[in-house]
Specification:
Helices cover 31% and strands 20% of the residues. It contains 11 helices and 16 strands. The strands form 3 sheets. Strands 1, 2, 5, 6, 7, 9, 10, 11, 12, 15 and 16 form an 11-stranded mixed beta sheet that branches. It has a 3-stranded mixed beta sheet with strand order 3-4-8, with no helix packed on it. The protein has a two-stranded antiparallel ribbon with strand order 13-14. Helix 2 runs parallel beside helix 5. The longest helix is centred in the C-terminal third of the chain and has 15 residues. The chain is globular.
Length: 397
């Protein structure tokens, strides 16, 4: 097992999703059990499904960012300009210098929606239309390049694309950079937007539910796709929490789209996160589960949680609020876990009426409240790419 790591302060965080902009909107939606899902009307031939669409993405980026114009970067800007996050990063630049702050961002599709639009609008000569001849928006690093420019950061800039674990793994990379002394702080996050490749791609795999998703319900029928942006600022040194205490990563090496049937990768990532944080499973108060509402993911994850944690630990998936936001799922659900530390609210499972028999007593339908000192967040991506994050209210248990 890995040894303990020095905790890092999470000195700012924000999330924008289908339930609204910022942590106040997120807190309100979770407490009221108000879903952000709606019937799909996205694209020219909408699939019969439900989606988590973010409002306010029609307005273009400010003129100074015009080379980066696309839906994904518009959502990134909307997320950055929320909860005072821009100001917190500006203050961090003054403390650490722009060259000493890393930027590590996760995305699954980046700005592929702009590339789809370009191919639909080819000129008679077979070229992209003039308005979309901006090479940066047709690359996987479009998001990182835009955010680095928007935040005036000059340190290492990394794009992580490991499917649904992408913006959880950003915490791990950032922690390693800071521990190695490469930087003193890091902005981490993730952004993914709806597009045809996402909707029709998952539909071709027969994973999209025609109804609002029902994580861990016996009658679940698949995922509801969504879009979101989230960011956090990690810093070393003394100061108020919460803290990133530990993280774990693993690879199932089992199947391209199905988890290992015994959850070996999930068990490894959870165990490593607890070991790095020096925390026993018994003291974890809440776990935000990956819980996509697909058949195998929920079954395997439920069994792992039932085996590893006591009945007192509460666990849930929050994807029925936001939809499955793909490369942004890790950061959005990390923010939800961080908010549990701040507010004591532990969400239940929305839309679940009859829990799968694989679920143990940890997985609850109703919301709960109480003292929350340690939380986990699971993110398990296609190809068996697993990540678990451990946060705590204090630097050590």
């Amino acid at each position: 097992m890995p040894s303990a790591i020095p905790p890092l302060r999470v000195s700012a965080c924000t999330a924008t999703s289908a339930v609204g902009r910022g942590v106040a909107a997120l807190d309100e939606a979770l407490a009221a059990r108000r879903s952000g899902l709606k019937r799909n009307d996205f694209g020219v031939s909408p699939l019969p499904t439900w989606i988590g669409e973010v409002e306010g993405l029609d307005a273009p980026l400010p003129a100074r960012f015009s080379p980066y114009e696309c839906r994904n970067n518009r959502l990134a800007w909307l997320g950055l300009d929320t909860d005072g996050f821009l100001e917190r990063v500006r203050e961090a630049r003054e403390r650490h210098r722009a060259t000493r702050i890393a930027l590590v961002l996760g995305t699954s599709t980046s700005s592929i929606g702009a590339s789809e639009e370009a191919y639909r609008s080819l000129t008679p000569e077979g070229l992209f239309p003039e308005s979309l001849r901006r090479p940066i928006v047709h690359t996987p690093h479009s998001l990182g390049a835009f955010v680095a420019h928007a935040l005036a950061l000059e340190g290492p800039c990394v794009t992580v694309a490991t499917a649904c674990s992408s913006s959880a793994k950003v915490f791990c990379q950032a922690e390693r950079m800071i521990r190695a002394g490469l930087v003193d702080a890091a902005v981490v996050g993730g952004v993914d937007t709806l597009c045809g490749s996402v909707l029709f791609g998952f539909n071709s795999l027969e994973l999209v539910s025609p109804d609002p998703c029902r994580p861990f319900d016996r009658a679940r029928r698949g995922i509801s796709l969504g879009e979101a942006a989230g960011f956090a600022l990690l810093e070393r040194g003394p100061g108020p929490g919460p803290y990133l205490l530990g993280h774990g990563e693993s690879s199932d090496a089992h199947h391209m789209s199905s988890p290992h049937p015994d959850g070996l990768g999930a068990r490894a990532s959870i165990g490593d996160a607890l070991a790095r944080g020096g925390v026993a499973a018994e003291v974890v108060d809440y776990i935000n589960l990956h819980g996509t509402a697909s058949q195998k993911n929920d079954e395997v994850e439920a069994k792992v949680i039932a085996d590893l944690f006591p009945a007192r630990t509460r666990a849930s998936s929050t994807k029925a609020w936001t939809g499955h936001t793909l490369g942004a799922a890790g950061i959005v659900e990390a923010v939800i876990a961080l908010r549990a530390l701040a507010t004591g609210l532990m969400p239940g499972n929305l839309n679940a009426d009859d829990l799968d028999p694989a679920c143990g007593p940890q997985i609850r339908i109703d919301n709960g409240t109480g003292e929350v000192r340690h939380v986990l967040s699971n993110s398990f991506g296609f190809g068996g790419s697993n990540c678990t994050l451990l946060f705590g209210r204090e630097a050590r248990a």
